[in-house]
Design goal:
The protein is mostly beta strands and 697 residues long. The protein contains two helices and 52 strands. The chain has four domains: 18-32 and 42-168, Trefoil (Trefoil (Acidic Fibroblast Growth Factor, subunit A)), CATH 2.80.10.50; 180-259, Immunoglobulins (Immunoglobulin-like, Sandwich); 275-357, Immunoglobulin-like, CATH 2.60.40.10; 366-695, TolB, C-terminal domain (Neuraminidase, 6 Propeller), CATH 2.120.10. The strands form 15 sheets. It has a four-stranded antiparallel sheet with strand order 4-5-6-7, with no helix packed on it. Strands 8-9-10-11 form a four-stranded antiparallel sheet, with no helix packed on it. It has a four-stranded antiparallel sheet with strand order 16-15-18-19, with no helix packed on it.
């Protein structure tokens, strides 16, 4: 036996479970084991190759008998050499049928297989240097005596960093195939069972990640093709599954399967009528307040009416009891009333009406809102042309439209070549005009292609896109059903900035050699600026699904980012900055040492996902405007130093989900909705609006 140190070397302090390591996409795994059905049709797992011997970790004699020992042996890829690190921290083999454990928690104990019990003795983690550590004992998986021959036994021993304790993965850049055959069973008001057909992979599927509408729900072992889900009564979700291998390669998302669970109990009783309604006018804005209603189950929303027409909704748990109506006509009387609703659409009668008159002039932040146009597709990127008209992209229809705001006339100017939607939120996304557009006519576009997300440019000349002029500037940006990022913005330095999503693979966000989960910076011709921090396009990293980009008067870049299920965030971007995903979501730790990790940059503002899910941002006179989808509102936030202050909310529920906000040439705002078909990639199945918002003094 080799001479070993008498004490264990200090190991790196940042040790994470495989579900948050380089073997995984970095999403937080569920704590409870979910064994589910075993995928007998495919050999799951990957080979672990001893760095010293070059041979594979192997169950001797290919025996599944509990107590059979582990060894190293020539690599052949059969089931006794395919190991799975499960989201619960187990090290499984034989398609997940057996778990690895030491015969005792002492040095030199043999590593063997056993029936999986979920006990602490079967928990393992993999260190960044390739060591496989037994959690309960802090001992490392070790080839005894540093032997290299076939059949050399594998034990646990004090971790020492030697090569006989290092286990590498075979080189692998190929993602698994897309999961298929999603089906639901056992659907109740708050639970359901989701099953799917197994994916295949050249090295074996290690995990399946289950999502709804871009939000991660849970991860399960690659040997599992069935899992129990917690759902919300009455809420319609689009479920889908990604497959992930041990090297962190992630498949494209499966087809979406819709679920709308029934309510847990029948409810026909409406809430009580709201009382105590008051209205106060300041300039051309009116602030309403009322006393909360009661309900046998619970009030979920209040609908606000002006002149008998619904103009907004206040929701939440419980919903608020105030509302601001902005952009009204001066010196005009308005009558308001409010009703209460519960989760099963029972509605109270309208409250007693209250009448209030606006002031003589606009003294509010928002002075007026006018609808300029509608569209049957989703307006996404939007830019101002020098003549006062605008160009906007239709995400799913994949063409670009010129809009004359004075007449409302719309003209399609051409379809961008090679755009492919993702049955989610990919497609035709961000637009930007060259700083020298008046002479060079370049229009910059970010879009999803059949293989990646990319940034291209083509000329807009004589009222049409010149598709023959198209140049691909950046390609190879990860794509998936959701998390494609997609905004473009030229900075005052003349460089083009782009926000890219993590393609539903959190590991990409921390990989400086990967363009996904980043803010990118490039020269107008597509070359890499010489002063970029990492010698490539990456300007900042650690982002999940950033979309909004905007510069303030000091030339500082602000960014808006979708969180998963806890919080969204607004960031002030620093050159080379790390914003923490997947270990940190907003200010909430999700893995590793979480938000306390040295070097992570904290957001300037966070929002609950229910009040946020914000996409576009714009800066006008050093005020940040944030357009929110699920939150159905526009935030107004004053930039003061490096902070966001005097936060106000407008249009809460008035126009529904908001996608894009952009400055107008005269210092006001364009605002677009994203209410229908924004998660299915079907063209022309929407009913969206484009507004012009006049700002106050």
């Amino acid at each position: 036996m080799q001479v070993r140190p008498s004490s264990r070397r200090a190991r790196r302090t940042i040790l994470v479970l495989l579900s948050a390591s380089a073997f995984a996409c970095g999403v937080k795994a569920e704590n409870a084991p979910d064994l589910g059905a075993q995928a007998a049709a495919v050999t799951a797992g990957t080979r672990l190759i001893g760095a010293q011997s070059g041979r594979c970790l192997d169950v001797a004699q290919s025996s599944q008998t509990p107590g059979q020992g582990l060894q190293v042996y020539d690599c052949h890829g059969e089931g006794n050499q395919r190991f799975l690190f499960t989201p619960e921290g187990e090290l499984r083999v034989f398609d997940g049928a057996r778990c690895v454990e030491p015969v005792s928690a002492t040095a030199e104990a043999r590593a063997v297989i056993a029936v999986c019990t979920g006990a602490a003795n079967q928990r393992w983690r993999r260190d960044a240097n390739g060591a496989v550590v037994h959690v309960a004992s802090s001992l490392c998986l070790d080839v005894a005596n540093q032997a290299t021959a076939n059949g050399s036994p594998v034990i646990v021993w004090d971790c020492n960093g030697q090569t006989n304790q290092q286990w590498t993965l075979p080189p692998d850049t190929q993602p698994p195939t897309v999961p298929t055959g999603l089906a639901l069973s056992n659907v109740t008001c708050n639970s359901a069972t989701l099953t799917w057909s197994p994916s295949t992979d050249n090295e074996g599927v290690a995990f399946y990640d289950v999502y709804h509408d871009g939000q991660h729900m849970k991860s399960v072992s690659g040997a599992t093709v069935s899992t129990a889900l917690t759902v919300v009564p009455g809420a319609t979700w689009g479920l889908y599954v990604n497959a992930r291998d041990a090297a962190g390669n992630v498949s494209q998302g499966s087809a979406t399967l819709s679920i709308t669970p029934p309510q847990c109990q029948a409810d026909t009783q409406p809430p009580s009528i709201p009382t105590g309604l008051t209205a106060t006018a300041v300039g051309t804005s009116v602030t309403l307040g009322w006393t909360a209603s009661t309900d046998n189950v619970g009030v979920t929303a209040y609908d606000v009416f002006r002149g008998g027409v619904k103009i907004g909704t206040v929701s939440g748990s419980p919903p608020g009891t105030s509302f601001v109506d902005s952009g009204l006509t001066p010196n005009t009387a308005y009558a308001y009333a409010v009703l209460a609703r519960d989760a099963q659409a029972n509605a109270s009668a309208l409250s007693s009406a209250v009448t209030v008159s606006t002031g003589q002039a606009c003294t509010s932040a928002i002075c007026s809102v006018s609808q300029v146009a509608t569209d049957t597709d989703i307006p996404w990127g939007l830019v101002n042309l020098p003549d006062g008209s605008v160009l906007y992209g239709r995400r799913d229809a994949q063409d670009i439209v010129r809009l004359d705001p004075v007449t409302g006339q719309k003209t399609s100017v051409g379809t961008v070549p090679n755009v492919q939607s993702t049955d989610g939120e990919g497609g035709l996304m961000g637009l930007a005009l060259s700083p020298a557009f008046s002479t060079d006519r370049w229009l910059y576009v970010m879009h999803t292609s059949p293989t990646d997300n990319r940034i291209v440019r083509l000329r807009y000349e004589n009222g049409a896109l010149s598709t023959s002029s198209l140049q691909v500037l950046v390609q190879g940006i990860g794509r998936n059903k959701f998390h494609n990022g997609g905004r473009l913005r030229f900075g005052p330095d003349g460089k083009l900035y782009a926000s890219t999503g993590d393609a539903q693979n959190g590991a990409y966000a921390q990989d400086l050699n990967n363009l996904a989960g980043k803010v990118l910076r490039l020269n107008p011709d597509g070359s890499v600026p010489s002063d970029n921090p990492f010698g490539n396009y990456v300007w900042s990293y650690g982002h999940r699904n950033p979309q909004g980009l905007a510069f303030d008067s000091q030339g500082r870049l602000w960014e808006q980012e979708f969180g998963n299920s806890v919080m969204d965030e607004t960031n002030l971007i620093q050159r080379g900055g790390n914003y923490g995903w997947p270990n940190c979501e907003g200010t909430v730790s999700q893995g590793g040492s979480g938000c306390a990790t040295a070097g992570y940059i904290a957001p300037k503002r966070t929002y609950s996902t229910a009040d946020g899910s914000c996409s576009g941002i714009a800066v006008v006179r050093d005020v940040l405007y944030v357009a929110c989808a699920r939150g159905s509102r526009l935030y107004r936030e004053v930039i003061s130093g490096t902070e966001l202050t005097n936060v106000q909310q407008f249009f809460v529920g008035t126009y529904g989900r908001l996608r894009t906000v952009e400055p107008t040439l005269d210092g006001n705002l364009w605002l677009t909705t994203t209410n229908q078909g924004d998660k299915d990639s079907i063209p022309n199945n929407s009913n969206e609006k484009i507004f012009r918002v006049v700002l106050g003094p």
